[in-house]
Amino acid sequence: MMEHTRTGVFHLSIIGLLAGLYFVLPEYHSGVLARVMVLAVYAMGYNLLFGYTGLLSLGHSLFFAAGMYGLGLAMQHLGFNPLMGISTAILVALIVSAVIGFLALRTTGVAFMIVTLMFAQAGYLTILWMGEYTRGDEGFVIPQSKRVLAGVDLSNADNRYFAALILFAVALLIVGWIVCSGFGKTLVAIRENEERARMLGYNVQRHKWFAVIVSGVLSGAAGAAYALLFGYVGATFATVQYSIFPLLYVLLGGAGTTIGPLIGTVFMYYLIDFTSGLTNAYLLVVGVALILLTLFAPHGLAGAIRKRILPWLP
Amino acid sequence: MEFGPHFFLASLEGAVNAAVLALMAVGLSIVFGIMRVVNVAHGEFFMLGAVIAWWISSLIGIHPAVGFVTALIAAPLMVGAIAATADYFILRRIDYDPERTIVATIGLLYVLQQTTLMTFGPEARPVEAPFNKRIALPWFEKTAEGFSIYWPWGLSTTTYKLAVIAAAFVILVALWIFMTRSRVGLIMRATQLDSEMATAHGIPVDRVYALVFGLGAAIAAMAAVLVVPIQQAHYLMGHDPLLLSFIVVIIGGLGSIPGTIVAALLIGMSDGIISVFFSPTVAKILATLLVAFVLIFRPQGLFGKHAT
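^ Those are the sequences you sent over. The predicted structure of the assembly is below.
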């Protein structure tokens, strides 16, 4: 229980810090932070699978897009309200990740990476193909009048920040709880030594499957929130690039730490923001960062902190 | 045009596709077979080949053929050198760990692609073919007095396209002779079978890996030089060939070169034919799903006999 309490207190103080930052930061940066928190939820979902379970997926944009289009299409074509939209998004992400997980987990290692990549690519192409509804590459805008949840206008910057914070807080607490639970410990055991976990009598396949589903649902929730808060749904979010981003955030922040995804997303977002002001080839930074991280810092920032200073970091 | 001649034309286009794809995929397959790593940056080596071909042919303004032939020799060498350098500084240091290699080569993909965007620019640029003569092709027609030959409007190909098919064939045969008959090829195959044993016998495995990685990239670059007079050089042109050669290598059986070539012919031809008659997007969706399901249910590939 000690661990649960410490993790809980640590996470609540992070959430408190983010809430306080809103009153200190200039408008531009709080706007960025709202976006970063939503993307960090995506990265946290990714981290649960990559950092804790040791499964490297190259197809998470499929789950992000499942949430995004689940909400967007339901609101646009079926006239759903945001709450029903979010529920639809989560349901769609749940189904998609359950099916993909069931199929992809029959493979391991490199084959798993390629299978997830191929499914995500098929999903992206399907979005383009169904251009009549999805409007393909161009995407569509969710009108401001529809983005009102329980009387709160989410297109307003203040409301948006706190809506993003609530999502982030819920995700962080859930992930913190999972990581401390027996289920989370088993995932780490699978990551460290799959054979041994199996020998000890754990149902490895089912644990991995649940991990894919939780990871997919978190990614889908982030996708739905992104569409709702920023009002745009487009096929760009389903491309391979959006599968690479959470990997990059997690690698930079620290795989297998609860706070790593947030740290990585903040750093990478500002780095890309800064570079895109200098050149249109801003993805160069992404490439250089990926290479340098694999070469010199496989544990990321939070990983290094845990190793050197704070061994209890969740 | 009627169905018959239209189908014939589509198969010709498909054959050009297949020839280029076979080269691309064999490059990827050699790297996977010998080094056991997946090179995600393979498409960018293809793109670099095309861009360098444009650069060389615009430097040498004497006659398109001179620039083209120079590019056909120089571009693969330059791209191979870049790849071998990347191998030396990146892949060797992470000890060819399969998963970390994928992440690192994704990084390499962005670095090469974005550097090209910064220097070469976002435009698509053409390279003139060394020769390019249209050939009208005949078709048969059944009339009252038996078969007669006629020349349908639009049914034609160019000498250059036929030359691409021939060149790809020659390169593949040369590669096969190199791998099976030469001493370097023997060393490569020994490394593939057992790299530790190879080290014990004094084979410099590190250097073999750098050579293989360079060779794979050089073959991709060669494919690009061949295709650039038909397609134009563009900084994003590596994306589709990468995906297609992934598909080919997986369906043909990871690391099996004959399987790769058969699959390249199959996929290249059918991709060419399907895209003429149906929506290319549907063809791509089906192809990517096929790969996923092959990996899930038949990981040794459709033509492979043993699991790798």
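The CA atoms of residues 24 and 220 of chain B lie 5 Å apart. The longest strand of chain B covers residues 139-143.

Shout if you want it in another format.
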